[in-house]
Protein backbone atom coordinates (compact mmCIF):
# COMPACT_ATOMS: atom_id res chain seq x y z
CA UNK A 1 0.00 0.00 0.00
CA UNK A 2 1.36 3.41 -0.90
CA UNK A 3 0.18 6.98 -0.73
CA UNK A 4 -1.55 6.62 -4.06
CA UNK A 5 -5.10 6.76 -2.73
CA UNK A 6 -4.80 10.50 -2.33
CA UNK A 7 -3.33 11.30 -5.70
CA UNK A 8 -5.03 8.86 -8.07
CA UNK A 9 -8.31 10.21 -9.35
CA UNK A 10 -11.29 7.94 -9.74
CA UNK A 11 -12.06 7.49 -13.47
CA UNK A 12 -15.64 8.74 -13.00
CA UNK A 13 -14.31 11.90 -11.34
CA UNK A 14 -11.74 12.30 -14.13
CA UNK A 15 -14.49 12.07 -16.73
CA UNK A 16 -16.68 14.62 -14.93
CA UNK A 17 -13.70 16.97 -14.67
CA UNK A 18 -12.88 16.60 -18.33
CA UNK A 19 -16.47 17.34 -19.32
CA UNK A 20 -16.65 20.37 -17.03
CA UNK A 21 -13.31 21.65 -18.27
CA UNK A 22 -14.53 21.59 -21.83
CA UNK A 23 -18.07 22.87 -21.07
CA UNK A 24 -17.07 25.61 -18.60
CA UNK A 25 -13.31 25.90 -18.02
CA UNK A 26 -13.77 28.92 -15.74
CA UNK A 27 -16.09 26.93 -13.49
CA UNK A 28 -13.76 23.93 -13.47
CA UNK A 29 -10.97 26.23 -12.27
CA UNK A 30 -13.15 27.22 -9.30
CA UNK A 31 -13.34 23.68 -7.88
CA UNK A 32 -11.47 22.81 -4.68
CA UNK A 33 -9.19 19.77 -4.57
CA UNK A 34 -12.06 17.84 -2.94
CA UNK A 35 -14.45 19.23 -5.53
CA UNK A 36 -12.21 17.75 -8.21
CA UNK A 37 -12.06 14.37 -6.44
CA UNK A 38 -15.85 14.18 -6.05
CA UNK A 39 -18.08 11.92 -8.15
CA UNK A 40 -21.22 9.88 -7.64
CA UNK A 41 -20.08 6.28 -7.36
CA UNK A 42 -21.52 3.50 -9.46
CA UNK A 43 -22.23 1.55 -6.33
CA UNK A 44 -25.27 0.31 -4.49
CA UNK A 45 -27.35 3.45 -5.07
CA UNK A 46 -26.96 3.45 -8.83
CA UNK A 47 -27.46 -0.33 -9.01
CA UNK A 48 -30.58 0.06 -6.85
CA UNK A 49 -31.87 2.84 -9.08
CA UNK A 50 -31.53 0.57 -12.10
CA UNK A 51 -33.27 -2.23 -10.21
CA UNK A 52 -36.16 0.06 -9.24
CA UNK A 53 -36.85 0.54 -12.93
CA UNK A 54 -36.28 -2.98 -14.16
CA UNK A 55 -36.59 -5.49 -11.31
CA UNK A 56 -40.29 -6.21 -11.79
CA UNK A 57 -39.98 -9.69 -10.27
CA UNK A 58 -37.72 -9.43 -7.19
CA UNK A 59 -35.78 -6.43 -5.98
CA UNK A 60 -33.24 -7.58 -3.39
CA UNK A 61 -30.87 -4.64 -3.79
CA UNK A 62 -31.87 -2.09 -1.18
CA UNK A 63 -30.54 -1.73 2.33
CA UNK A 64 -33.93 -1.31 3.95
CA UNK A 65 -36.37 -4.01 5.08
CA UNK A 66 -39.75 -4.41 3.43
CA UNK A 67 -42.93 -6.29 4.25
CA UNK A 68 -46.16 -6.62 2.30
CA UNK A 69 -44.88 -4.41 -0.49
CA UNK A 70 -44.00 -1.40 1.73
CA UNK A 71 -41.29 -0.46 4.22
CA UNK A 72 -41.17 -2.44 7.46
CA UNK A 73 -41.96 -0.10 10.37
CA UNK A 74 -42.68 -0.14 14.08
CA UNK A 75 -46.04 1.15 15.37
CA UNK A 76 -44.24 2.75 18.33
CA UNK A 77 -42.51 5.09 15.91
CA UNK A 78 -45.40 5.66 13.60
CA UNK A 79 -48.39 6.22 15.89
CA UNK A 80 -47.31 9.45 17.67
CA UNK A 81 -46.85 11.25 14.35
CA UNK A 82 -50.31 12.84 14.44
CA UNK A 83 -50.33 13.94 18.08
CA UNK A 84 -46.94 15.53 18.64
CA UNK A 85 -46.55 18.84 20.43
CA UNK A 86 -45.23 21.54 18.06
CA UNK A 87 -42.37 22.11 20.54
CA UNK A 88 -41.20 18.56 19.93
CA UNK A 89 -41.03 19.04 16.20
CA UNK A 90 -40.21 22.59 15.10
CA UNK A 91 -37.50 24.20 17.28
CA UNK A 92 -33.81 23.55 16.70
CA UNK A 93 -32.43 20.58 18.61
CA UNK A 94 -29.28 21.05 20.75
CA UNK A 95 -26.04 20.43 18.83
CA UNK A 96 -25.41 17.16 20.64
CA UNK A 97 -29.05 16.08 20.39
CA UNK A 98 -32.05 15.90 22.73
CA UNK A 99 -30.76 15.06 26.21
CA UNK A 100 -33.60 12.60 26.85
CA UNK A 101 -32.87 10.71 23.66
CA UNK A 102 -29.14 10.56 24.41
CA UNK A 103 -29.72 9.15 27.90
CA UNK A 104 -32.21 6.58 26.61
CA UNK A 105 -29.83 5.42 23.89
CA UNK A 106 -27.07 5.12 26.48
CA UNK A 107 -29.40 2.96 28.57
CA UNK A 108 -30.06 0.81 25.51
CA UNK A 109 -26.31 0.37 24.94
CA UNK A 110 -25.88 -0.80 28.53
CA UNK A 111 -28.81 -3.21 28.38
CA UNK A 112 -27.69 -4.73 25.09
CA UNK A 113 -23.96 -4.84 25.91
CA UNK A 114 -23.64 -6.08 29.49
CA UNK A 115 -19.81 -5.91 29.27
CA UNK A 116 -20.12 -2.12 29.37
CA UNK A 117 -21.29 -2.31 32.99
CA UNK A 118 -18.96 -0.31 35.23
CA UNK A 119 -16.97 1.12 32.30
CA UNK A 120 -16.54 4.81 31.57
CA UNK A 121 -17.89 5.84 28.20
CA UNK A 122 -19.56 8.92 26.78
CA UNK A 123 -23.19 9.82 26.36
CA UNK A 124 -24.14 9.07 22.74
CA UNK A 125 -24.15 12.22 20.59
CA UNK A 126 -26.90 12.40 18.00
CA UNK A 127 -25.78 12.30 14.36
CA UNK A 128 -27.66 12.46 11.05
CA UNK A 129 -27.45 8.67 11.08
CA UNK A 130 -24.40 6.50 10.73
CA UNK A 131 -23.09 8.04 7.52
CA UNK A 132 -22.78 11.34 9.37
CA UNK A 133 -21.17 9.51 12.31
CA UNK A 134 -18.53 8.17 9.93
CA UNK A 135 -17.97 11.63 8.58
CA UNK A 136 -17.61 13.09 12.10
CA UNK A 137 -15.18 10.33 13.09
CA UNK A 138 -13.04 11.08 10.06
CA UNK A 139 -13.17 14.84 10.70
CA UNK A 140 -11.96 14.24 14.25
CA UNK A 141 -9.32 11.59 13.67
CA UNK A 142 -8.29 11.28 10.01
CA UNK A 143 -5.68 13.40 8.23
CA UNK A 144 -4.78 13.10 4.54
CA UNK A 145 -2.47 10.13 4.07
CA UNK A 146 -3.63 8.35 7.25
CA UNK A 147 -4.25 4.62 6.95
CA UNK A 148 -7.71 3.17 7.59
CA UNK A 149 -7.62 -0.61 7.98
CA UNK A 150 -10.77 -2.66 7.31
CA UNK A 151 -11.79 -6.08 5.96
CA UNK A 152 -12.15 -6.45 2.19
CA UNK A 153 -15.91 -7.04 2.44
CA UNK A 154 -16.97 -3.48 3.01
CA UNK A 155 -19.70 -0.91 2.54
CA UNK A 156 -18.60 1.00 -0.57
CA UNK A 157 -19.44 4.41 0.91
CA UNK A 158 -16.42 4.12 3.24
CA UNK A 159 -14.32 4.99 0.19
CA UNK A 160 -16.26 8.20 -0.37
CA UNK A 161 -15.79 9.28 3.22
CA UNK A 162 -12.22 8.24 3.97
CA UNK A 163 -10.51 8.32 0.58
CA UNK A 164 -12.34 10.86 -1.57
CA UNK A 165 -13.25 13.31 1.18
CA UNK A 166 -10.44 12.97 3.72
CA UNK A 167 -7.63 11.81 1.42
CA UNK A 168 -6.86 8.81 3.65
CA UNK A 169 -5.65 5.43 2.40
CA UNK A 170 -7.87 2.41 2.87
CA UNK A 171 -5.95 -0.80 3.50
CA UNK A 172 -7.85 -4.09 3.44
CA UNK A 173 -7.30 -7.70 4.49
CA UNK A 174 -9.33 -10.80 3.50
CA UNK A 175 -12.50 -10.96 5.65
CA UNK A 176 -12.92 -14.72 5.69
CA UNK A 177 -10.63 -17.67 6.35
CA UNK A 178 -11.48 -21.24 7.29
CA UNK A 179 -15.24 -20.64 7.25
CA UNK A 180 -15.22 -17.70 9.65
CA UNK A 181 -13.66 -14.34 10.41
CA UNK A 182 -10.01 -14.18 9.37
CA UNK A 183 -8.50 -13.42 12.79
CA UNK A 184 -4.90 -14.27 11.84
CA UNK A 185 -5.19 -12.14 8.66
CA UNK A 186 -6.48 -9.24 10.73
CA UNK A 187 -3.68 -9.55 13.29
CA UNK A 188 -1.09 -9.70 10.53
CA UNK A 189 -2.51 -6.70 8.64
CA UNK A 190 -2.65 -4.76 11.89
CA UNK A 191 0.95 -5.59 12.78
CA UNK A 192 2.19 -4.72 9.28
CA UNK A 193 0.34 -1.41 9.17
CA UNK A 194 1.43 -0.70 12.76
CA UNK A 195 5.10 -1.04 11.79
CA UNK A 196 4.71 1.77 9.26
CA UNK A 197 2.51 4.15 11.26
CA UNK A 198 2.27 5.71 14.69
CA UNK A 199 -1.50 6.02 14.35
CA UNK A 200 -3.99 3.74 12.66
CA UNK A 201 -7.72 3.92 12.17
CA UNK A 202 -9.39 0.51 12.23
CA UNK A 203 -12.95 0.16 10.99
CA UNK A 204 -14.94 -2.97 11.82
CA UNK A 205 -18.55 -3.43 10.78
CA UNK A 206 -20.46 -6.28 12.44
CA UNK A 207 -22.99 -7.59 11.51
CA UNK A 208 -21.27 -6.91 8.22
CA UNK A 209 -22.55 -5.33 5.05
CA UNK A 210 -22.36 -7.00 2.51
CA UNK A 211 -21.83 -10.48 4.01
CA UNK A 212 -24.23 -10.55 6.98
CA UNK A 213 -21.51 -12.02 9.19
CA UNK A 214 -21.22 -11.50 12.95
CA UNK A 215 -18.15 -13.07 14.61
CA UNK A 216 -18.42 -15.80 17.20
CA UNK A 217 -17.45 -14.91 20.76
CA UNK A 218 -14.06 -16.59 20.30
CA UNK A 219 -13.46 -14.61 17.10
CA UNK A 220 -14.44 -11.38 18.83
CA UNK A 221 -12.00 -12.17 21.64
CA UNK A 222 -9.30 -12.75 19.02
CA UNK A 223 -10.00 -9.35 17.45
CA UNK A 224 -9.78 -7.64 20.83
CA UNK A 225 -6.53 -9.48 21.67
CA UNK A 226 -4.93 -8.43 18.37
CA UNK A 227 -5.93 -4.80 18.95
CA UNK A 228 -4.64 -4.89 22.52
CA UNK A 229 -1.29 -6.34 21.38
CA UNK A 230 -0.95 -3.56 18.80
CA UNK A 231 -1.86 -0.88 21.34
CA UNK A 232 0.72 -2.37 23.72
CA UNK A 233 3.29 -2.26 20.90
CA UNK A 234 2.78 1.51 20.87
CA UNK A 235 0.43 2.17 17.94
CA UNK A 236 -2.28 4.74 18.59
CA UNK A 237 -5.49 3.05 17.51
CA UNK A 238 -8.85 4.64 16.74
CA UNK A 239 -11.17 1.67 16.42
CA UNK A 240 -14.51 2.50 14.85
CA UNK A 241 -17.29 -0.05 15.39
CA UNK A 242 -19.91 0.47 12.69
CA UNK A 243 -22.82 -1.27 14.41
CA UNK A 244 -25.45 -0.34 11.82
CA UNK A 245 -27.13 -3.78 11.93
CA UNK A 246 -26.64 -4.38 15.65
CA UNK A 247 -29.11 -6.70 17.35
CA UNK A 248 -30.18 -8.58 14.22
CA UNK A 249 -28.50 -11.83 15.25
CA UNK A 250 -29.94 -15.14 14.01
CA UNK A 251 -27.27 -17.61 15.19
CA UNK A 252 -27.47 -19.66 12.02
CA UNK A 253 -25.45 -22.85 12.40
CA UNK A 254 -23.79 -21.78 15.65
CA UNK A 255 -24.01 -18.94 18.16
CA UNK A 256 -22.51 -15.60 17.25
CA UNK A 257 -21.40 -12.91 19.63
CA UNK A 258 -24.23 -10.56 20.58
CA UNK A 259 -22.25 -7.60 21.89
CA UNK A 260 -20.57 -4.71 20.13
CA UNK A 261 -16.77 -4.76 20.04
CA UNK A 262 -17.10 -1.30 21.58
CA UNK A 263 -17.93 -2.93 24.92
CA UNK A 264 -14.73 -4.97 25.07
CA UNK A 265 -12.56 -2.17 23.66
CA UNK A 266 -13.69 0.60 26.00
CA UNK A 267 -11.15 1.07 28.80
CA UNK A 268 -8.83 -1.53 27.30
CA UNK A 269 -5.60 0.44 26.80
CA UNK A 270 -4.61 4.14 26.80
CA UNK A 271 -3.45 3.80 23.18
CA UNK A 272 -6.87 2.68 22.01
CA UNK A 273 -9.97 4.83 21.55
CA UNK A 274 -13.18 2.93 20.76
CA UNK A 275 -15.79 4.82 18.72
CA UNK A 276 -19.27 3.36 18.38
CA UNK A 277 -21.51 4.32 15.47
CA UNK A 278 -25.08 3.10 15.50
CA UNK A 279 -28.58 4.36 15.05
CA UNK A 280 -32.28 4.04 14.60
CA UNK A 281 -31.86 3.64 10.84
CA UNK A 282 -31.52 -0.14 10.68
CA UNK A 283 -32.12 -1.12 14.31
CA UNK A 284 -35.51 0.61 14.54
CA UNK A 285 -36.35 0.34 10.83
CA UNK A 286 -36.37 4.12 10.40
CA UNK A 287 -33.91 4.73 7.58
CA UNK A 288 -35.29 8.06 6.43
CA UNK A 289 -35.45 9.63 9.89
CA UNK A 290 -31.64 9.97 9.75
CA UNK A 291 -31.12 9.51 13.47
CA UNK A 292 -27.88 7.91 14.64
CA UNK A 293 -25.27 8.22 17.37
CA UNK A 294 -21.54 8.51 17.94
CA UNK A 295 -20.25 7.32 21.32
CA UNK A 296 -16.69 7.47 22.63
CA UNK A 297 -15.05 4.77 24.75
CA UNK A 298 -11.60 6.02 25.84
CA UNK A 299 -8.87 3.61 26.85
CA UNK A 300 -7.77 5.32 30.05
CA UNK A 301 -10.60 4.71 32.51
CA UNK A 302 -9.46 7.26 35.18
CA UNK A 303 -9.73 10.23 32.83
CA UNK A 304 -12.40 8.87 30.50
CA UNK A 305 -15.13 11.25 31.70
CA UNK A 306 -12.91 14.27 31.10
CA UNK A 307 -11.83 12.92 27.69
CA UNK A 308 -15.46 12.27 26.69
CA UNK A 309 -16.47 15.81 27.70
CA UNK A 310 -13.72 17.24 25.49
CA UNK A 311 -14.49 14.96 22.56
CA UNK A 312 -18.15 15.89 22.91
CA UNK A 313 -17.30 19.61 22.70
CA UNK A 314 -15.24 18.98 19.57
CA UNK A 315 -17.95 16.81 18.02
CA UNK A 316 -20.56 19.48 18.75
CA UNK A 317 -18.30 21.97 16.97
CA UNK A 318 -18.09 19.69 13.95
CA UNK A 319 -21.88 19.20 13.93
CA UNK A 320 -22.49 22.94 14.34
CA UNK A 321 -20.10 23.82 11.56
CA UNK A 322 -21.30 21.02 9.31
CA UNK A 323 -25.08 20.51 9.50
CA UNK A 324 -25.86 22.79 12.51
CA UNK A 325 -28.07 20.21 14.25
CA UNK A 326 -30.13 17.10 13.62
CA UNK A 327 -33.90 16.97 13.00
CA UNK A 328 -35.82 17.62 16.22
CA UNK A 329 -38.82 15.71 14.88
CA UNK A 330 -36.79 12.59 14.14
CA UNK A 331 -35.17 12.70 17.55
CA UNK A 332 -38.54 13.10 19.27
CA UNK A 333 -39.98 10.12 17.43
CA UNK A 334 -37.03 7.90 18.33
CA UNK A 335 -37.05 9.11 21.94
CA UNK A 336 -40.76 8.32 22.26
CA UNK A 337 -40.31 4.91 20.69
CA UNK A 338 -37.55 4.10 23.19
CA UNK A 339 -40.07 4.86 25.96
CA UNK A 340 -42.76 2.69 24.48
CA UNK A 341 -43.51 -0.47 26.49
CA UNK A 342 -44.27 -2.20 23.20
CA UNK A 343 -40.98 -1.46 21.47
CA UNK A 344 -39.11 -4.63 22.47
CA UNK A 345 -41.98 -6.84 21.34
CA UNK A 346 -42.31 -4.96 18.06
CA UNK A 347 -38.59 -5.23 17.36
CA UNK A 348 -38.72 -8.89 18.31
CA UNK A 349 -41.50 -9.50 15.82
CA UNK A 350 -39.56 -7.88 12.96
CA UNK A 351 -36.40 -9.67 14.02
CA UNK A 352 -38.28 -13.00 13.93
CA UNK A 353 -39.51 -12.22 10.43
CA UNK A 354 -35.97 -11.40 9.24
CA UNK A 355 -34.62 -14.49 11.02
CA UNK A 356 -37.16 -16.72 9.22
CA UNK A 357 -35.97 -15.26 5.92
CA UNK A 358 -32.30 -15.74 6.84
CA UNK A 359 -32.96 -19.37 7.82
CA UNK A 360 -34.71 -20.09 4.54
CA UNK A 361 -31.92 -18.37 2.60
CA UNK A 362 -29.32 -20.48 4.44
CA UNK A 363 -31.20 -23.69 3.52
CA UNK A 364 -31.87 -22.84 -0.09
CA UNK A 365 -28.58 -21.18 -1.05
CA UNK A 366 -26.67 -24.21 0.23
CA UNK A 367 -28.58 -26.81 -1.82
CA UNK A 368 -26.08 -29.17 -3.48
CA UNK A 369 -27.43 -28.52 -6.96
CA UNK A 370 -26.41 -24.87 -6.69
CA UNK A 371 -22.78 -25.73 -5.91
CA UNK A 372 -21.89 -25.45 -9.59
CA UNK A 373 -23.14 -21.84 -9.59
CA UNK A 374 -21.82 -20.37 -6.34
CA UNK A 375 -20.23 -20.72 -2.93
CA UNK A 376 -22.08 -19.17 -0.01
CA UNK A 377 -20.06 -16.86 2.23
CA UNK A 378 -20.74 -17.46 5.94
CA UNK A 379 -23.61 -15.36 7.29
CA UNK A 380 -25.68 -15.33 10.45
CA UNK A 381 -27.04 -11.78 10.97
CA UNK A 382 -28.22 -8.47 9.58
CA UNK A 383 -29.96 -7.70 6.29
CA UNK A 384 -27.72 -9.40 3.71
CA UNK A 385 -25.83 -12.44 2.52
CA UNK A 386 -23.31 -12.89 -0.30
CA UNK A 387 -22.44 -15.60 -2.75
CA UNK A 388 -19.25 -16.00 -4.78
CA UNK A 389 -20.45 -16.85 -8.26
CA UNK A 390 -18.56 -19.30 -10.46
CA UNK A 391 -17.50 -18.85 -14.06
CA UNK A 392 -19.21 -15.50 -14.57
CA UNK A 393 -18.42 -11.89 -13.80
CA UNK A 394 -20.68 -10.49 -11.08
CA UNK A 395 -21.48 -7.22 -12.89
CA UNK A 396 -22.33 -9.03 -16.12
CA UNK A 397 -24.58 -11.38 -14.16
CA UNK A 398 -26.27 -8.48 -12.37
CA UNK A 399 -27.15 -6.78 -15.64
CA UNK A 400 -28.30 -10.07 -17.20
CA UNK A 401 -30.54 -10.76 -14.16
CA UNK A 402 -32.10 -7.34 -14.49
CA UNK A 403 -32.53 -7.29 -18.25
CA UNK A 404 -33.62 -10.89 -18.80
CA UNK A 405 -35.25 -11.91 -15.52
CA UNK A 406 -36.45 -8.72 -13.82
CA UNK A 407 -34.37 -9.51 -10.73
CA UNK A 408 -32.30 -6.89 -8.90
CA UNK A 409 -29.24 -7.94 -6.91
CA UNK A 410 -26.05 -6.05 -6.10
CA UNK A 411 -22.60 -6.81 -7.52
CA UNK A 412 -20.18 -5.99 -4.69
CA UNK A 413 -16.98 -7.32 -6.23
CA UNK A 414 -15.61 -9.09 -9.30
CA UNK A 415 -17.33 -12.34 -8.35
CA UNK A 416 -19.52 -11.38 -5.38
CA UNK A 417 -23.27 -10.92 -5.48
CA UNK A 418 -25.17 -9.53 -2.49
CA UNK A 419 -28.73 -10.58 -1.72
CA UNK A 420 -30.74 -8.32 0.60
CA UNK A 421 -33.09 -10.84 2.20
CA UNK A 422 -34.37 -7.91 4.25
CA UNK A 423 -36.51 -7.05 1.23
CA UNK A 424 -37.62 -10.56 0.22
CA UNK A 425 -40.67 -12.30 1.64
CA UNK A 426 -40.01 -15.90 2.71
CA UNK A 427 -41.93 -17.30 -0.26
CA UNK A 428 -39.79 -15.30 -2.70
CA UNK A 429 -36.53 -16.88 -1.56
CA UNK A 430 -36.71 -20.24 -3.35
CA UNK A 431 -37.63 -18.74 -6.73
CA UNK A 432 -34.97 -16.02 -6.36
CA UNK A 433 -32.13 -18.52 -5.93
CA UNK A 434 -33.53 -20.68 -8.69
CA UNK A 435 -33.48 -17.77 -11.10
CA UNK A 436 -29.98 -16.79 -9.95
CA UNK A 437 -28.81 -20.31 -10.73
CA UNK A 438 -30.56 -20.29 -14.09
CA UNK A 439 -29.04 -16.93 -15.02
CA UNK A 440 -25.53 -18.08 -14.12
CA UNK A 441 -25.94 -21.24 -16.20
CA UNK A 442 -27.14 -19.13 -19.12
CA UNK A 443 -23.90 -17.16 -18.99
CA UNK A 444 -21.19 -19.75 -18.28
C1 LIG B 1 -22.29 -0.87 7.13
C2 LIG B 1 -23.11 0.37 7.00
N1 LIG B 1 -22.77 1.46 7.68
C3 LIG B 1 -23.47 2.59 7.59
C4 LIG B 1 -24.58 2.68 6.79
C5 LIG B 1 -25.31 3.98 6.71
O1 LIG B 1 -26.38 4.00 7.56
P1 LIG B 1 -27.26 5.29 7.82
O2 LIG B 1 -28.45 5.16 6.93
O3 LIG B 1 -27.58 5.19 9.26
O4 LIG B 1 -26.44 6.48 7.48
C6 LIG B 1 -24.99 1.57 6.05
C7 LIG B 1 -26.16 1.68 5.16
O5 LIG B 1 -26.36 1.02 4.21
C8 LIG B 1 -24.23 0.38 6.16
O6 LIG B 1 -24.58 -0.71 5.48
Can you describe this structure?
Helix 9 links the parallel strand 5 and strand 6. The chain is of the alpha/beta class. It contains 18 helices and 17 strands. The radius of gyration is 22 Å and the shape is globular. The protein folds into 2 domains: 120 residues, Aspartate Aminotransferase, domain 1; 257 residues, Aspartate Aminotransferase, domain 2 (3-Layer(aba) Sandwich), CATH 3.40.640. The strands form 5 sheets. The protein has a 7-stranded mixed beta sheet, sandwiched between helices. The chain has a 4-stranded antiparallel beta sheet with strand order 13-14-17-16. Strands 1-15 form a two-stranded parallel sheet.
Radius of gyration: 22 Å
**CATH fold annotation of the largest domain:** Aspartate Aminotransferase, domain 2
How many E strands? 17
Q: Which strand order spans the largest sheet, edge to edge or round the barrel? A: 4-12-11-10-9-5-6
Give helix % range. 40-55%
Label the overall shape: globular
Mean pLDDT: 94
Q: Which structural class best describes the helix and strand composition?
A: alpha/beta
- The biggest beta sheet, please? 7 strands, mixed
Count the DSSP helices: 18
Instruction: Give the class-level CATH name of the largest domain.
Output: Alpha Beta
